[in-house]
Amino acid sequence: MVEIRFHGRGGQGTVMATILLAKAFFLDGYHVQSFPLFGVERRGAPVEAYLRLDQTEILIRTNVYTPDHVVVLDQTLLESIDVTVGLKKSGWILLNRPSPPANLDSFSDYRLAVVDATHIALKNRLGTRTQPIVNTAVMGSLARVLGVPSMAAISEVIREEIPRQPKANIKAAETAYKEVQTVELVDR
User: Fold this and answer.
1) Number of domains in the chain
2) What is the DSSP secondary structure assignment for residue 89, as one 8-state letter?
C-alpha cells in the first residue's frame, strides 16, 4: 500500500487533487481511498488531505500517520509546518516552488522533487494571480515522480470532473509532468 499526504491551503485545490488522483489511479486499476483533514475551513488556511492506493483491497480506515510520500502545494507552509513528520525514509517530497530550497539539510533522508506549479497555473489562467489553483499541475508532476497514474487517466478524469477550463487544466498537468525536477541530494 502507498500512502500520500498533501499539504496545501484552502482554495488551492488540495482536496480536489486527492479526489481526482484517486479517480485516475482507479482508472489505472488501483484500489483507492481519498480523504481530507480540515482545521479551520477558510480560504488560505492550512489543509491536509490523504490518498491511499494499492493493487489489492484497502481495509484500513485510519488517518495516514506514516506516509510514503508528501506533496506540498504551498511552499510557505514549510515555514510553519514540519511536512516530514512521519514520512518514511527515502519517500518523495514534491514541493511547489520554482527551485530547490537553499537549505537541503532537512530533506537529506528523503527524495526531493520541485515543480513551479504556481507559474504553470498562472500561465494557464487557473485561478487568479493572488490565488492560483495549482492542483492539476501538482497531479501531473506527481504522476511523473511516482511513475503512476498514467497521464491518459489524469486527462480523462480532468475532462470528466472539471467542467471549467478542462483543456487548460490538462495542459497544466502535462506541462508539470514534463517540467518537474528531481533534486540530487548529496549523501551526508
Assistant:
1) 1
2) T
Q: What is the DSSP string of 113-175?
A: EEE-HHHHHHHTT-B-SSSB--HHHHHHHHHHHH--S-HHHHHHHHHHH--SSHHHHHHHHHH
Report d(CA 64, CA 79) in Å as an integer: 22
pLDDT digits 0-9 by tens, 123-142: 999 999 988 999 999 999 99
Domain-embedded: residue 69:
yes
Does any domain span residue 74?
A: yes
DSSP-derived 3-state class of residue 23: helix
pTM of the model: 0.92
CATH code: domain of residue 120: 3.40.920.10
Residue matched to cell numbers 549523501 = 187
For 155, the domain range is 2-183
Crossing angle for the helix pair 151-161 and 14-27, to the nearest 10 degrees: 120
